[in-house]
Amino acid sequence: MTDTIDPDLIERGRKMFAGDWHFIWASPSIETLPPMGSMEVAFAGRSNVGKSSLINALTGRNALARTSHTPGRTQELIFFEGPPNAGLRLVDMPGYGYAAASKAKVASWTTLIHKFLQGRATLARVYVLIDGRHGLKDVDLDILKTLDKSAVSYQIVLTKADQIKAAELAQRIAETQTALAKHPAAFPEILATSSRTGAGMPDLRAAMIRLLDERR
Ligand SMILES: Nc1nc2c(ncn2[C@@H]2O[C@H](COP(=O)(O)OP(=O)(O)OP(=O)(O)O)[C@@H](O)[C@H]2O)c(=O)[nH]1
Ligand SMILES: [Mg+2]
Fold first, then answer.
1. In principle, which of 30, 48, 83, 87 could form an S-S bond with 71, CB 3.0–4.6 Å?
2. What is the pTM of this model?
């Protein structure tokens, strides 16, 4: 996939993400968001899909975002900022669809997620992460509906590509593409990634550079 992207974008993406990325803010509620500043890119997806791991893989840091093999690790909107000249923030989100959490917690996370995705002027792109082994589920479709109503552009990112064979991955991409036909607001291209092997990271970094270029 990487060879189809402008090598200059790949290199600029590599450089930007090799810089100093750090935690700046955690919001348990929509009332406590940080003041708007640079462009934001958010990572949404079901609990345990690999959102926090993806942020660590992108930034080449093992423990910038907190991960765990039990669902429900990230419970707030977590903001990370890059080097001053990057002009970009990454937003790690709580997962949705986590059945074992209390009803009150699920309701409060769901409200927070949907409100943030609909009403943040500096939010330029949402990456909706889908487990490459499982594909799109009903809870994912709820998020796509919210995003269709908002002004923000979004793209599907398949995760944990290292866990499946190439043929299965190709099939998952095809299925997801078919489902996206009902969501014209979605970016048509689907990215396949693995935080474990680093597959797809150069592409994702380059995509963010392109987005920054468009916004400048
Ligand atoms: N094999 C493999 N495992 C992964 C990958 N990405 C994440 N994982 C594993 O999946 C589990 C969940 O990862 P997290 O990054 O914490 O998932 P999350 O989406 O942030 O989860 P919540 O914060 O609970 O919503 C961890 O055990 C990770 O090691 C990947 O690319 N490949
Ligand atoms: Mg997390």
1. 48
2. 0.96
